[in-house]
Every structure is written in structure tokens, then in C-alpha cells.
Amino acid sequence: MWDEVLEYRVWCHPERGAEDLFEGDDYYYTFETCEEALAFSESKKGTEEPLALILQKEHINEPEPGVFEHVKEERVTEWCVDWLSRSKRSDDTIPRFMQAEGDPNRMNILRASDRDA
Q1: What region, left, alpha or beta, does residue 104 occupy, with left being phi > 0 and alpha being psi -120 to 50 degrees?
Q2: What residues form DSSP beta bridges with 47?
Q3: Cβ–Cβ contacts within 10 Å for residue 102, how many?
Q4: How many domains is the chain built from?
Q5: Residue 57: inside a domain, yes or no?
Q6: 3-state percent breakdown (helix, strand, coil) of the chain, nearest 5
Q7: pLDDT by residue (tens digit) across 1-14?
Q8: Considering the domain boundaries, does residue 116 fall inside one?
Q9: Contact, 114 vs 89, CB < 8 A?
Q10: Is residue 17 within 8 Å of residue 41, measured between CB atoms?
Q11: Distance between CA atoms of residues 89 and 20, nearest Å
């Protein structure tokens, strides 16, 4: 689940052919849209596919397999762009997930698109 896309990033790797701007260290460029990031990554050597930098105002932690915790603090993390098709968090997404303990379809709550949620 995600709350907001903050930016799109394209990581550049000099060891893979990207321009060496930082003495061999990897670096990234930021973009407002995925389309801009994708066009850049496709036009430059040594780049990765775009990633989305997302804000999660709340999230679910799984400290061990099958044990879930509702975390009510913000975090910022990079996601594969494809993961944005997963559920954008609504006020009841995490509570519904936590209440569905034991339901074999529990993960579908998190995988749902906005129109399915």
C-alpha cells in the first residue's frame, strides 16, 4: 500500500556504462512523471528502469513469516513502478487486512487496485 508518489528515480551505474560523475559511485536523476523517467532510462547507457519514491503514512510490517504488525508512522521507500498497481491505501485497508487473520485470501486486500478495494 502506498499513499503518495513523491518522485520517480533512475539510478545510473558507471560500472555499467553510465557517465562517471562521482568517482565511480552510483547516482540517480529525479523526474516528476514515470514517462519522463522511462524515456531517460531508455536513452542512456548504464541506467536502471525507473523506480517510484513513495510515501507510506502507515504500513504493515512482517517481522517473521505470517506475523503482521500495523505500523502507524511514515516512511519513504523506493518501489518498482509496477507495484503502484497495488492498492493505494484507504482509511480501512490496513484494518480490513488485520481483521482478516486466518482468511486464505487476506493478501488480496493489499493487492487490490483502487477500483477493487
Answers
A1: alpha
A2: 12
A3: 5
A4: 1
A5: yes
A6: 25, 35, 40
A7: 899 999 999 999 99
A8: no
A9: no
A10: no
A11: 39
Distance of CA 99 to the CA centre of its chain: 24
Q: Do residues 72 and 94 touch, judged by C-beta distance below 8 A? A: no
9 touches 37 (CB < 8 A)? yes
Residue 60 counted as domain residue = yes
Burial of 26 per CB tally in 10 Å (0-12, 13-18, 19+): middle
117 falls within a domain: no
Give the model confidence (pLDDT) of 71-99 as tens digits. Answer: 999 999 999 999 998 878 999 999 999 99
Q: Where are the alpha helices (DSSP H) in the chain?
A: 34-43, 93-99, 108-111
* DSSP-based three-state secondary structure for 91: coil
pLDDT digits (tens, 9 = 90+) for 3-45: 999 999 999 999 999 999 999 999 999 999 999 999 999 999 9
Domain that holds residue 85: 4-111
